[in-house]
Design brief:
Layout (H helix, E strand, L loop, with lengths): L3 H13 L10 H9 L4 E4 L6 H11 L3 E5 L3 H13 L4 E4 L5 H12 L5 E4 L1 H4 L2 H9 L2 E6 L22 H4 L5 E5 L4 H10 L6 E4 L7 E7 L3 H10 L5 E5 L3 H13 L4 E4 L5 H12 L5 E4 L12 E6 L6 H8 L9 E7 L1 H12 L4 H19 L4 H8 L12 H4 L4 E3 L1 H14 L5 H8 L5 H5 L16 H13 L3 E4 L5 E4 L1 H9 L4 E3 L18 H18 L9 H7 L7 H6 L5 H39 L5 H11 L4 H8 L3 H13 L6 H4 L3 H10 L6 H7 L6 H14 L3
Parallel strand pairs: 1-6, 1-7, 2-4, 2-5, 3-4, 5-6, 8-13, 9-11, 9-12, 10-11, 12-13
Antiparallel strand pairs: 14-17, 15-16
Helix pairs in contact: 2-3, 14-15, 18-19, 18-22, 19-21, 23-26, 27-29, 28-29, 29-33
The protein binds adenosine-5'-diphosphate and zinc ion.
The site of zinc ion has 8 residues, from α16 and α17.
């Protein structure tokens, strides 16, 4: 078992090397388990912090940690980021020139590396395995482990042989990591990597910082542009179903002055690489892509993902939206949902030859449709799909933020159930709606359904509204829908009970149109300063030829923009600022922070002096203030002046404030108890805070008037 001392050491590495104060859920247990020499199987959502789980043990254990990762571009970024934290890391893949490769292997064999990232096909060559025998291996980490499974969505043949590592080096602990939530794939991974005895760490798959939004698709370009208005200059991905739609959308966005580029499998490899690289380095903001784009994208500050078209399954939707907000900052996922797309995807699925597979895909599509049409918390539906039950609504999806209007739909619901019962057969929603609306189309006449009691139950509400009612009845469990029988409805137990006991049915009112009157996020940061800090970061990244986020995340820069007083301690306290980065880069940010503080202070004193001048020029003291001044000059106390003038002490204090502002000398320090402490506290306080904020923040116990007097005095003598 990892001792207390080991845990302390791990925490020290977390802080000193990576600049983080606390472990995220599960990280510490996983790290300790590897330090104990045990295997681990880690299922954590994107952005959960998987990398640290093997990086820290690799640093702490003797020998080198071998990380298998499927994508070359990812390896480079990871190594760039680690090097900047002072960790000795390299990668070994086909992108290296032979001289570079030799040099790296020499370092590796000399035991100089904490971590080596290796492409799977290189790792499993005879010569490389022979090298491994000779050196000490700290651990094997298999990143994106779902690539070993044919069930997963990213199967890679090179991954299959990774299981061999277990026979070659059975004593080296192995950690496999994936964000795949699907049970079937998980089992397959464990088996193929011989991890059946490994401890399994499953964290919640919720991504609380992603806000899920669904809008009915009407004028997609306008809708996208409107959405982008709120995310000017931010990074985002727009997914479209076809190459043609990708290209059209990219051109349209460019026409509107947005730095966007297209990405799809039909483009030459070189162009694709460039687009991806430009995106990672923030040279373009928006990527419009088919699902071909994403796997290699480890960009932490993707602020939004838009689905212009319906994804084929919740798995795809979840994976694609998951590319937003890896850094934990607020992000949005917008789905434009159109019923036309449902039919389009359905037709694509109908081309699938294998009947079983077709059935599975139809089921997956229907679940996606249900999520899009859900009138309850989207996150609950989403997590529920991955068997993660949740008691509470999330408060961060469109349904929670802008709940649909509900109404008593008992009559409609009973009619619908009765109609399905009387129709007796395999009928889907559309047909039942036709009956209820009194259609006399050929099929209805052939079935003699125009004679049903429920025929023409209500013609006044339109087809869409009726459809919405029936879908909700399915969601709420009054009907089940059989995929293999073209969505035929069957009345459930709950549905039969409805006809018996007249329990009221409350449904959400059908609302066509875009619903997007949600309040925008505010990161609570100083945008002007943040922008300047981003410029510094980009300059440094350009100079070192690395992706900006490998230097500092937006989280670090956001926190930096909120520093009150620029000191070494304040900078070292920032999340993501380890000692190594501090030494290398703090000097570049400091002047910007200090200049900003000076500019702001000048603005404030500018205001202060302006006020002083006004007082000195125009507003000489009122008569009452003049009396106060006269009495004060003669050495009268506050109480005495109040008594002499027949006013309260509060009023006298207000006179004092006006006098101080008018540059009359009132000896404020002698009036305030423990004046030194008060001044010290104010020195450390936010100079732009309001009076009430200051009072809340500080432990100073003064009346409002006394407080204002102190502030006026500070201003008059030129402090803050
Ligand atoms: P994953 O591989 O699971 O998608 P990453 O390992 O890339 O996630 O981590 C996501 C982000 O969270 C990174 O920016 C990382 O530096 C940050 N992070 C990881 N662990 C912590 C922690 N304990 N405290 C603060 N930030 C962390
Ligand atoms: Zn919700």
């Amino acid at each position: 078992m990892a001792t207390k001392k080991v845990k302390e050491h791990a925490r020290k590495v977390l802080k000193d090397t990576f600049g983080y104060d606390m472990f995220r859920p599960m990280q510490e247990e996983i790290i300790c388990s590897l330090l104990d020499g045990k295997d681990a199987f880690v299922l954590m959502p994107t952005g959960g912090g998987k990398s640290l789980c093997y990086q820290i043990p690799s640093i702490m254990r003797p020998g080198t940690g071998i990380v298998v990762s499927p994508l070359i571009s990812l390896m480079k970024d990871q190594v760039d980021a680690l090097t900047r934290c002072g960790v000795k890391a390299e990668y070994y893949n086909s992108s290296l020139k032979s001289a570079e490769a030799k040099e790296i292997l020499a370092k590796f064999e000399a035991g100089e590396l904490d971590l080596l990232y290796v492409a799977p096909e290189r790792l499993l060559t005879k010569t490389f395995l022979a090298r491994l025998e000779k050196i000490e291996v700290a651990l094997f980490a298999i990143d994106e482990a779902h690539c070993v499974s044919q069930w997963g969505h990213d199967f890679r043949p090179e991954y299959v042989r990774l299981g061999e590592l277990r026979t070659v080096m059975p004593d080296v602990p192995m950690i496999a990591l994936t964000a795949t939530a699907d049970e079937h794939t998980r089992e397959d991974i464990a088996e193929r990597l011989a991890l059946t005895k490994a401890k399994c760490f499953v964290s919640s798959f919720d991504r609380p910082n992603i806000r899920y939004l669904v809008s009915e698709k009407r004028q997609p370009l306008t809708q996208v542009l409107q959405f982008l208005e709120d995310w000017k200059g931010a990074s985002g991905i727009i997914y479209c179903l076809s190459r043609k739609r990708v290209e059209d959308m990219a051109v349209n966005l460019q026409r509107h002055g947005i730095r966007a580029a297209a990405y799809h499998a039909g483009m030459p490899g070189r162009t694709r690489e460039k687009v991806q690289d430009d995106f990672l380095r923030d040279r373009i903001n928006v990527i419009v892509a088919t699902i071909a784009f994403g796997m290699g994208v480890d960009k932490p500050n993707v602020r939004f993902v838009i689905h212009h078209d319906l994804p084929k399954s919740i798995e795809s939707y979840y994976q694609e939206t998951g590319r937003a907000g890896r850094d934990g900052l607020e992000s949005e996922a917008l789905l434009l949902y159109g019923s036309g797309d449902v039919n389009l995807v359905r037709r694509l699925i109908e081309n699938v030859e294998n009947l079983e597979q077709r059935r599975v895909e139809i089921h997956k599509l229907n679940s996606m449709v249900a999520l899009s049409e859900a009138l309850t918390c989207r996150r609950r539906v989403l997590l529920g799909y991955f068997s993660e039950e949740r008691e509470e609504d999330c408060g961060n999806c469109d349904v929670c933020l802008d709940p649909p209007e509900t109404y008593d739909a008992s009559d409609f619901s009973q009619a619908a159930v009765q109609c399905v019962r009387d129709a007796k057969g395999d009928f889907a929603i559309g047909y039942i709606v036709d009956i209820l609306r009194g259609s006399k189309n050929a099929r209805i006449l052939a079935n003699k359904h125009e004679r049903l009691k429920m025929h023409a139950f209500n013609k006044t509400i339109n087809v869409d509204e009726w459809m919405a009612i029936l879908r909700q009845l399915v969601h709420q469990g009054y009907f089940t829908q059989d995929v293999s029988r073209r969505g035929a409805l069957t009345i459930s137990k709950k549905g039969r009970a409805l006809l018996r006991d007249n329990t009221p049915v409350i449904l959400a009112r059908y609302q066509p149109g875009i619903k997007r009157k949600l309040k925008r996020f505010s990161q609570g940061r100083n945008e002007a300063l943040f922008k300047k800090l981003v410029e510094v970061r980009d300059f440094l990244a350009e100079r070192e030829e690395v992706a900006p986020h490998t230097l500092f995340s937006d989280v670090t820069l956001t926190e930096m923009s909120q520093i009150n007083k620029v000191t070494d301690e304040a900078l070292l306290r920032l999340s993501g600022m380890g000692q190594h980065k501090f030494d290398a880069y703090a000097a570049f940010f400091r002047p910007v922070l200090e200049q900003y503080a000076r500019d702001e202070a000048a603005k404030e004193t500018g205001k202060g002096q302006h006020a002083l001048k006004l007082m000195a020029k125009g507003s000489s003291p009122t008569d009452a203030q003049g009396h106060t001044w006269a009495l004060y000059r003669k050495g009268n106390t506050l109480e005495a002046i109040g008594a002499a003038l027949g006013v309260s002490e509060k009023t006298v204090l207000n006179h004092y404030i006006a006098l101080v502002r008018g540059a009359y000398h009132i000896d404020v320090p002698s009036l305030v108890e423990d004046f030194e402490t008060v001044m010290e506290e104010l020195d450390d306080a936010d100079p732009y805070a309001s009076l009430s904020e200051l009072k809340k923040e500080l432990s100073i116990d003064l009346s409002n008037e006394m407080f204002r007097l102190v502030l006026a005095w500070r201003e008059a003598i030129g402090v803050n």
